[in-house]
Design goal:
Length: 208
């Protein structure tokens, strides 16, 4: 775990610590991740971010490369959780792939909660290739924040997946995979981001 650097923000004595992993294509300090983290810290939560090994290599070499294989991604999450084991009310999750990998270790590691922002239920234009098997009997209290236009899973599709009762999906109006709505919808990205952060803060405060 010593080779993974943690970016830690917010008060140590916060009601919850939220560990967030990035999506497949952008680093932990992308504008989107920065905005979410800053909003959560402003609401009094402690936020911890980290990068998977392939993203660390991109940062070090400047060369793009695809995500690590699942065993390496899972091992990174286990290491981060072990490092943060003393944090009261530890919630894990992240953007897209980062949240998906977190969901695969949440029960095993006994975390307090899981939050997935833009869960990739299936690849775009491939609704039959589901990534939901482990979500059917997930026990960890889970919040999925999803745009209603997300090509990785829209309301009509998700309603038929038979997800665990531990999972609550909160839909963000007209949002895409990063919660951005169309101009014609009358909503703004700022509105959807504020709504998402508000739901996450409520979720963190409600955990035992």
């Amino acid at each position: 775990m010593s080779d993974i650097e943690l970016l830690i923000e917010g008060p140590t004595a916060a009601v919850a610590t939220i560990a967030l992993a990035h999506g497949a294509g952008a680093p932990m300090d992308s504008d989107w991740m920065n905005d979410v983290s800053a909003a959560l810290v402003a609401r009094g939560l402690r936020v911890v971010r980290f990068e998977f090994p392939y993203m660390q290599r991109r940062r070090a070499t400047g060369k793009r490369g695809g995500p690590d294989r699942p065993p390496a991604l899972l091992a990174s999450w286990r290491g981060v959780i072990e490092t943060l084991a003393d944090s009261p009310r530890l919630i894990i999750g992240g953007k897209s792939m980062g949240g998906r990998i977190a969901s695969m270790v949440a029960d095993e590691c006994g975390v307090a909660g899981l939050v997935c922002m833009g869960y990739p239920f299936h690849p775009p234009r491939a609704p039959g290739k589901l990534r939901t098997e482990h979500l059917l009997d997930l026990r960890t209290p889970t919040l999925i924040l999803q745009g209603t236009r997300d090509p990785f899973g829209v309301p009509d599709e998700v309603a038929g997946y038979g997800l665990s009762d531990a999972i609550h999906v909160h839909w963000l109006g007209d949002g895409d995979h990063s919660f951005k709505p169309r101009v014609k919808s009358g909503r703004t990205l700022e509105q959807n981001m504020a709504e998402a952060v508000g739901e996450l803060v409520k979720f963190a405060g409600a955990l035992e």
